[in-house]
Amino acid sequence: MKLRPLITIFIFLPVVGLLAQTNASYQTVLREKQLLLQERNNPYVRAFLELIARSECGSLYFSDHKGYRSRYPSTVFTSFDAHPKEVLCAMSGDKKLCSSAAGRYMFLESVWNNIAERLYLSDFSPLNQDIAALYLIKERKALEDVKKGDIKAAIPKLNKIWSSFPGAPYKQPVKKMKDMEQFYALRVEHFKKYLKGY
HSE of 92 in the Cβ direction (CA atoms, 13 Å)? Predict the structure, then answer.
């Protein structure tokens, strides 16, 4: 009978330690997400997010949802509760292309699931889509290029993620760098005025 309190303590202490580690991990991720969101205050970063959306979503970028409800191929989904997780197909020339890509930044289901688990993203809301896009940009070591407005340096680092970017290796139609630079420059000027205090 006298051993029971000791047994309880030995069981309890590892649980407390695990909870402390989990909380510390969550706080670290929370801080990481906050830092990523702060990057949106940089007009070069905000314009680059627009550039991805324009390139990936096509005409849906101009819709009232600004591409956040977009889904391959040129359709929309209705709920932000979760990634649609549905593979749809379309013809591109004489080739049939299938993809689960969805959202403003056309996240594949597998890519989204990995980021959502890593960053504790509980839904597919516009805010979380922005966080995930910024995470990918940072992970590919392109964030500093983007923050300086150097998209010629950033795009080659990201064209394996976003297949519409020049140099993407997927044998699909890509955007012209000149057109991207022109659009990007216009959006940078817009956000320099819009994001006051930068």
Answer: 14
CA atoms within 13 A on the CB side of 39: 28
Round to whole Å and give the CA distance between 188 and 198: 12
Q: At what angle do helices 151-158 and 177-194 cross, to 10 degrees?
A: 120
Q: What is the DSSP string of 52-85?
A: HHHHHHGGGGGSTTTTTTEETTTEE-S--SS---
| Alpha helices, DSSP H, located in 58-196 | 109-119, 126-139, 143-147, 151-158, 177-194
> Which tokens sit at 67?
């591409």
The C-alpha atoms of residue 70 and residue 76 are separated, in whole angstroms, by: 5
Query: Considering the entire predicted model, what is its pTM?
Result: 0.86
Question: Among the listed ranges 22-36, 50-64, 129-143, 153-167, which one has the minimum average pLDDT value?
Answer: 22-36
The topology (CATH level 3) of 35-194 is Lysozyme (1.10.530)
Indicate which residues carry an active-site annotation.
Answer: 56
